[in-house]
Design a protein that fits this description.
With about 550 residues, the chain is an alpha/beta fold. The chain has 15 helices and 18 strands. The strands form four sheets. Strands 5-6-7-3-8-9 form a six-stranded mixed β-sheet, sandwiched between helices. Helix 2 crosses helix 3, helix 6 runs antiparallel to helix 7 and helix 14 packs antiparallel against helix 15.
């Protein structure tokens, strides 16, 4: 059953066309992931479906009454404190584990996202549009959101660059790229496999076509040479007989006819069966260069504690960060990951001691990327007097995915993904030694995420990052800082290694509890058996104890006892 459809939708800003001729069905109950590079128009398309923006051409058609719609917008700036949250919204907050007393202005990025999701999902609309709902969410919250989406009967259209999340929830993928929309059945991995297979087939067909075109063009060139020669012979002055001239005129005419006929056949064949050259995969090139190491230690924490009001984030923390280490910060929302970054930078008070090495430059990428001069243009922000340096800057920014028109825009007009790239450009120019990255993949499209992963793998400096992108964490973290239980522990393991250790520890704990329970049941059963031996069968007490003996025996068998 279809909820609605997109019918040849076009989005344009002035003469700039973002996308056009976009058509697709919206099935009832589907979970659709909308993917594509930054600037492809994903948010614009959501706004059109939500009725917040009118298409330049075409439209959104609904079958039956227009469905109720929830539109969860991408968080660009600090939002105002939510008001009037009662009833269903407060219940939804409790399900997310967010206290009713949590204030939006002082909440962490993950807690803010939960507050906004609580308000949006409490509406119980038939169509739910989610623009980047996974940003800032920890693994437990991502699991809850995935379960909620799978359990609800609503139709979901989700913009997300979280590959693992799309794999968990989507049953189809809409790819918006190069102004076109392509629909794929399945989740993200299915989409990538199908896209690669289709692109490989198109590339092969195009290459075969180009070889044929080259052969025909070579034949046409040969015919043209023969025709030119015949024309010259037919008009040559001298003693050539009229019969010979006529012969060459006829030969030239024949060659011209052959040329026109062969070219028409080629054009007709290309029009009927020709394929276009596949679009090049959008790539983004980052090149973050770290300077030489200036010491073995970068940070050392001794007896470090941090509290907000009466709430302790962590206390008595001890660990050292060595030069060149790559540490991933792992912990639930609100456990203090962003706070630790600010403490390392000297931007947050704390108790204890944090030692920082001298002479190292530190680059900090915050979640909101709001520490940029928003009123300045990109050109002004990266101004340099040297013409050659200006040229290199423009090339580097082009490699980061910036168009020439964006050079003149104020930073406030850039998307969050584009602002993040401005910060990366700043790190490139500074030759940063230490990078502190707080959710660095938020707002980045998939090609940019994958390129950032490849780049940071070659970064020679020290890297500390907090990320809920599992792909990113598994690829880059050589060690972990584990937040929880009012402390921070440094462990020399990758995330999969740590999880395996935790699972093994949990298994052993369960076995220990099982053995303890088995001994308790066995002791209790022996006591019951002893009391039974002193009673006369058939008496009420004997019947009651006999029933207890049977129940205890059954419980022991479930635990593997006799």
């Amino acid at each position: 059953m279809q909820l609605g459809e997109l019918d040849k939708v076009k989005a344009a800003y002035g003469e700039t066309v973002i996308f056009e001729d976009v058509s697709a069905d919206i099935p009832e109950g589907a979970v659709i992931a909308l993917v594509g590079p930054n600037g492809a128009g994903k948010t614009t398309l959501l706004e059109m479906i939500a009725g917040k923006r009118a298409p330049s051409e075409g439209g959104v058609k609904w079958f039956g009454r227009r469905p109720s719609v929830t539109y969860f917008r991408q968080e660009q700036e600090q939002a105002a404190e939510p008001e009037g949250e009662i009833g269903a919204v407060l219940e939804e907050r409790r399900r997310w584990g967010v206290s009713e007393k949590t204030a939006y202005t002082t909440a962490s990025g993950g807690e803010r996202m939960k507050l906004r999701l609580s308000a949006a999902l409490a509406e119980n609309s038939r169509l739910v549009l989610l623009d980047e709902p996974t940003n800032h969410l920890d693994r437990e919250s991502l699991g809850r959101l995935a379960a909620l989406i799978r359990e609800q009967d609503a139709t979901f259209l989700i913009v997300s660059h979280d590959r693992h999340f799309i794999d968990r929830v989507a049953d189809r993928v809409w790819e918006l790229d190069h102004g076109r929309l392509t629909v794929y059945d399945g989740h993200y991995t299915d989409y990538r496999e199908k896209k690669e297979a289709a692109r490989a087939a198109q590339q092969k067909h195009w290459e075969q076509q180009q070889r044929k075109v080259a052969r025909v063009e070579e034949q046409l060139e040969q015919l043209a040479q023969w025709s030119d020669k015949a024309h010259r012979e037919s008009t040559k002055k001298g003693g050539r007989a009229m019969g010979a001239k006529e012969y060459y005129r006829m030969k030239a005419k024949k060659k011209d006819i052959q040329i026109r006929s062969k070219r028409r056949r080629l054009e007709a064949e290309l029009e009927k069966d020709g394929v276009e050259k596949p679009d090049e995969e959008r790539t983004v090139e980052f090149e973050v260069k770290g300077s030489r190491k200036k010491g073995k230690r970068v940070f050392e924490l001794k007896d470090v504690s941090k509290s907000f009001g009466g709430h302790t984030l962590f206390k008595d923390v001890h660990f050292t960060v060595q030069a060149g280490e790559r540490l991933g910060l792992v912990g639930p929302n609100g456990s203090g990951k962003s706070t630790l970054f600010r403490m390392l930078l000297g931007k947050e008070p704390f108790s204890g001691e944090i030692w920082r090495t001298d002479g190292m430059t530190i680059g900090w990428l915050s979640q909101s990327v709001l520490d940029l001069p928003l009123e300045r243009t990109v050109e002004d922000f990266f101004h340099t007097a040297s013409f050659d340096e200006q040229g290199k800057l423009r090339t580097d920014l082009a490699n980061l995915g910036f168009a020439a028109k964006q050079w003149k825009l104020p930073i406030s007009a850039l998307s969050m993904g584009e602002r993040l790239k401005v910060k990366l450009m700043q790190f490139i120019l500074d030759g940063t030694d230490v990078l502190l990255l707080d959710e660095p993949t938020n707002h980045l499209d998939l090609p940019s995420r994958e390129e950032m992963e490849r780049t940071l793998e070659t970064f020679p400096g020290t890297l500390l990052f907090a990320s809920h992108d599992r792909y990113f964490m598994e690829r880059l973290a050589g060690g972990l800082l584990i937040f929880g239980g009012e402390t921070i522990r440094k462990v020399p393991m990758t995330l999969p290694e740590w999880e395996r250790k935790q699972q093994e520890s949990d298994r052993r704990e369960m076995e220990k509890k099982s053995e303890s329970e088995r001994l308790r049941l066995e002791t209790e059963r022996q006591a019951v058996l002893g009391r039974l031996s002193l009673l006369q069968p058939g008496t009420p007490e004997y019947v009651k104890l006999d029933r207890s003996f049977i129940e205890l025996t059954a419980q022991l068998r479930e635990l593997g006892g006799n």
